[in-house]
Amino acid sequence: LADVEIERLLTSLRSALLRHIAVLDDTPFLISFQSSLSLHCLANEYVYFETEEDQENLIGLQNRIGEAISSGHEPKLTEILCLASYRPLDAFPWAEPLLSLDRASELRDRALLQPALEKEMAQSIPVLKEICDQVSAKVRDQYEANPYPRWLDTALNPRQVSLQDYLSSQNIRFVPLQLTTDVSPHVLIAGCGTGQHALHVAARDDQARVLAVDLSRSSIAYAKRKAEEAGLSDIRFMQADILDLGQLEESFDVIECVGVLHHMKNPLEGWNVLVELLVPLGLMKIGLYSACARRDVVSAREEIAALGLRGSPADIRSLRSRIMASHQPHHQQLRMSRDFFSMSEARDMLFHAQEHRFTLPQIKEAVNDLGLAFCGFSDTVLVRDFERWASYSEDVFDLDIWHQFEEDYPDSFRGMYQFWCQRRV
Q1: To pair with 352 at 20 to 30 A between CA atoms, which of 280, 284, 342, 344?
Q2: Which residue spans within 28-139 are E strands per DSSP?
Q3: CA-CA distance, 284 to 281, in Å (whole number)?
Q4: Are 134 and 344 in contact (CB under 8 A)?
Q5: Beta carbons of 358 and 290 less than 8 angstroms apart
Q6: How many helices and strands, by DSSP H and E, does the chain display?
């Protein structure tokens, strides 16, 4: 629920329930509401602000629950649900055998059973090579602690289309490519995170052979579980650093790398590794941060440095509270981002271990240096806006003209530069 006023309401209700939980009746209505609230807080990874009184009351609640269990009694379900709205239940060894959680089965499944399954799955994920690059290791550690992004529903499109038909629908200019095999395009998702991107690609074309790699085993385990839930168990998952992908000894018809390269020590070095994996005339989708569109984030990161915040959950909650109370324009702009409303996404947006930002002239130079041809942006709504602004239809493939457009409309690429390019023969 990406809404500040709703968050304030739910935060106040959660705090009131905690203060009075010892005297509240275990009614079906209360259990229903608490279950929903706990599921929501689990989904946003407990990003809501906690007062000192909340933390003191929470210690008391944990002690009461622990004493009840130690004496052989089942705690009240309302107490368990109250705790679950502040902390992940799988952090407590006593939670799984509680019979009372059968009355909150969705919370039991998502808070206990699914994390346990992901930990089991993580053990079987193949590893290309131990991650040695220091920046890659820092980024990996961030996403191990906060797999990104957390999501529940894939919203998969069941309509199957061939790769050629899909590319033709993207309104991009490219030379038709010869697939590595006649019917099975080989696709690499470089930096798959928690898998939403990879699942969409696999669902779009059931003939595609999809390899999805990421630095974080926790993120991949989440992706693997969601893939199996969606019946897409043919996706190959692997833990790997983009810098090491040359060891795969594979080539790909399509490589999609969105929101990843700008978190590397040297994005162009990683980009070059991917280019070397493309077949001649292979297509590549890239997503990079815009320096212009990220100016509000840059201002916030300067404030974070001045405040000495390090990106812990407490730091993230504290910063969000300051931003929610602020009337400064760049803070108001940050509150409009969906990334503001969960712990992993707020950390990714404001506290990332490594971030580069680009301009369109820099991207044009990189595309040329890497032996690629710019094929067009993937945001069809933005492209239509550009076409109404531009003088000529061919301007849509000219990054210099796009740079002029962004100077006129500096918020155009808040969702990153996402574009297609093709490897020249």
Answers
A1: 284
A2: none
A3: 10
A4: no
A5: yes
A6: 18, 7
